[in-house]
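User: Can you fold this complex?
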Amino acid sequence: MKAVEVDNLTKRFGQFVAVDQVSLSVEQGEIFGFLGPNGAGKSTTIRILCGLLSPTSGRATVNGFDVAAQSEQVKQNIGYMSQKFSLYDDLAVEENIEFFGGIYGVPAAEREERKRYVMRMAGLEDKGGMPTRLLPGGWKQRLALGCAVLHRPPILFLDEPTSGVDPIARREFWDLIYQFSEAGQTVFVTTHYMEEAEYCHRLALMYRGKVIALGTPQELKRQAGLPSMEQVFVEMIEREEAGA
Amino acid sequence: MNRNAWRRTAAVARKEFLHILRDTRSLVLALALPLVLLLFFGYALSLDVDRIPTLVYDQDGSPQSRTLVERFRGSRFFDILGQVDGYGEIERRIDRGEVLLGVVIGDDYSSDLAQVRPAQVQLLLDGSDSNTASIALGYAESVVQLHGLELLAEARNLKAGRTRAAAVEPRLRVWYNESLESRNYIVPGLIAVILMIIASLLTSLTIAREWESGTMEQLLSTPVRPFELALGKLSAYFVLGLADTLIAIGAGTLIFGVPLRGSLLFLFATSCVFTFGALSWGILISAVTRSQLLASQVGMVTSFLPAFLLSGFVYAIENMPAVIQVVTHIVPARYFVAMLKGIFLKGVGPAVLWTELFFLAVYGVVVFAATTRKLRQKLA
Ligand SMILES: Nc1ncnc2c1ncn2[C@@H]1O[C@H](COP(=O)(O)OP(=O)(O)O)[C@@H](O)[C@H]1O
Ligand SMILES: [Mg+2]
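Assistant: Here's the predicted assembly.
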């Protein structure tokens, strides 16, 4: 079974087509990147996959569950980190973790251990009582990631998890993504940093709601005959513009 | 509910409670507001009842009856416009709104007193503004009763002086217009208004805040169900709502001296049912508007105004135009005001008030269900 299967997915907001007949599939344990400029439709696609928006047409499954018809099961199987930081600023670090542990239904016996794991992972072992609002950006992102994986979801959706974070914190964040992938979790991640594109196992380039290229970073560079993802990206968009 | 559902609901309740505790300013406001509003409205509404225009019809014309009239004249609350010699003029001038109170002393007043029979003073009141009327009645009753005590004390002194005078123990009775049976008293009504305002103010921000900060999107991606989210939030605010209820009831009875004739337990149970509905209303507004600013404005307009104007608290419902009277039936505060007055002043219980209680319960369940439905919707 594929981790994510998307078939001719379309989402319209009124007349505007935000996601245009997108088809793709993601293997279990894969790090799948979604690359594209602002407004390309990356977040909209992820939201549909998380059951937050209904598709206008087409179909998608996550871990075998239909996102439109079985959103309850989908939600049991995913961890989602939205584009906007979305923990509770007024709660302490530990309180945020405990809250998400509760709503993800982490069994009481495991809760303490999972909490310690997340705090270690985020490098916040001695900051449990600190109000979340006082954390520096990189720590916040890792805490948000930690809260999204408390229940060991098989599939993780990360929407621009590293935006606005310094390069070192970004690198550390990607180390965590690799750890999840090695442990067998599937990671579906969007970004607009070209260097991060290189870290993904496979990539989809998205532009104006359409997937305009799909493959491993090596494949994409070889097909275009260009040495960097940045150049591939620009080339693909120019071709798309010329064709349109 | 299965174990996970409980766990999720409890997590939401706990988290919401932490929000309440962390936001010290709102917490202090939420707890101080009932007292402030009660004092403010309690005084604002009673202060304007002063120098009540009064007519006196003294059929007795005895020194005893003149003393009683002097007591009215001496009080700053009454303005004696004149003496009349018939009911007709009192009636006419009450109808024209020139006079609020008529004091009628029967021709057997002094002879009753002399023969140790209960002497009666009739008070005629303009009941159209029941609020003012009830205050005027309160003042008039106290003037008459004080005078009764005065006479009693005098009689006792005479006895102590062994002058052989018969003990005079006048029992003055007050009569008032039939229409005043449904008179309104301020404080019980005020408690309803205050609870309605606070409950919807408290909760109207709770979901809107989650939409604005982006945490709602996060919540919708988790297994937490709309019902659990609404119930969890409601429970946290319920604790605060009940604290406010107790403060309002306490202040009403202790500061304003409103008698609580009915059962405290029933009063509390009723308040719980009403608070549940009012809190649900606030959460519904929050879920619909998704904006804190809009939610607080809509919350104010839809809770304060109907509770204040249409509940029978300030303006008697039977004096409203027919159309408005129909509208009042969907104002939950109307039923709560009626129940509070019944419990406080008449001492009645569930046997009399069950229809009101039933409506409040239905209102709460319907609004809560609507909230759950609204939360089930997707992002767009
Ligand atoms: N709820 C919505 N209503 C209307 N338009 C929307 C909505 N959400 C997104 N859009 C539009 O859809 C397009 C794609 O948005 P998005 O998926 O957020 O892009 P990306 O994440 O790639 O930057 C944008 O033009 C955006 O304005
Ligand atoms: Mg986006």
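Chain A touches chain B at residues 13, 47, 50-54, 72, 75-76, 78, 80, 82, 84-91, 95, 98-105, 157 (CB under 8 Å). The longest strand of chain A covers residues 16-26.
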